[in-house]
Write a structure and sequence with these properties.
By secondary structure, the protein is an alpha+beta fold. It has twelve helices and nine strands.
Length: 273
């Protein structure tokens, strides 16, 4: 499986279009848990105000992607009103999305920088500004596709220097990350990871921490906890979940949960209900 597919299959990243048309005045977007925003500027002039009050002016066809919960304002020009499609980006409430967490608070770029993004945007605008049957489901499906194109663009252009996406864009580290994500139950050691990367243990450990931002062991532990949370929410037994993520029994998993979260698996599950 490729760099993105495994994560996108495990962690939902759905969109809901909430605005299409010309923006007049100011729109305030609040900071809501497990939710980001996508703004697609077709034409006109738009000012984006971030949490610190910094203003960015856009007057070309632009993707404005706010992947994490982030309070901001968008202001439409009176003289040249912006034509927009805006969508909420909603993540699984069980846990934060590892891809969203790997992105900066704000990404923006011109449609013309990526032909696939430009083409998808055109399809999306055609649906948004025409009264066709099935319009809203089509818009939501197209914005879902749009998010994947954005992530591909970020990976292909190596826009991230640190974090998960930087690791997924690295030719050697991506193989290790994919192996861990696909088989969290395997008894991974530093040597096995280094072998996949075709590197010495010391060089691999240093590079992994430099690029991904944490040690290979810490990444493995965090990934196992993420998968365990998903399985627990599916009402799987603690013992089964423990085996599925590489621990001998429920007690071993509980020790890891208490160390990282301060709760046992059952206590964590109760706190989420």
């Amino acid at each position: 499986m490729d760099q993105l597919s495994n994560i996108l299959q495990r962690f939902t990243m759905n969109t809901e279009v909430f605005f299409t048309g010309n923006l007049c005045g100011v729109s305030y977007l609040d900071k809501l848990p497990n939710q980001g925003h996508l703004h697609l500027l077709r034409s006109g002039e738009l000012t984006f105000i971030d949490e610190q009050g910094k203003a960015l002016l856009f007057n070309q066809p632009t993707v404005i992607f706010v992947p994490l919960p982030y309070r901001h304002q968008i202001i439409g020009s009176v003289e040249n009103p912006p034509e927009l499609v805006c969508a909420n980006v909603i993540y699984d409430q069980t846990h934060s999305n590892p891809i969203a967490n790997a992105l900066p608070a704000l990404l923006h770029f011109n449609f013309n920088e990526c032909p696939n993004i430009k083409q998808t945007a055109q399809w999306l605008f055609d649906e948004a500004f025409q009264d066709k049957c099935g319009r809203l489901p089509m818009l939501n499906a197209l914005t879902d596709i749009f998010i994947i194109h954005i992530l591909r663009f970020v990976l292909n252009n190596k826009m991230m220097k640190h974090g998960l996406l930087a690791g997924l864009a690295h030719p050697q580290l991506s193989k290790v990350l994919l192996a861990i994500q696909s088989t969290p139950e395997y008894s991974w050691g530093l040597q096995e990871m280094a072998d996949i990367a075709l590197m010495s243990r010391s060089k691999f450990a240093e590079l992994f921490k430099q690029v991904v931002g944490q040690s290979p062991g810490d990444y493995l532990l965090d990934w196992r906890i993420i998968i365990a949370k998903t399985l627990l929410k599916q009402n799987k037994s603690v013992a089964l979940v423990a085996n599925a993520v590489g621990y001998e029994n429920g007690s071993a998993l509980a020790r890891v949960f208490r160390k990282k979260l301060g709760l046992s698996p059952k206590e964590w599950l109760v706190s989420k209900q």
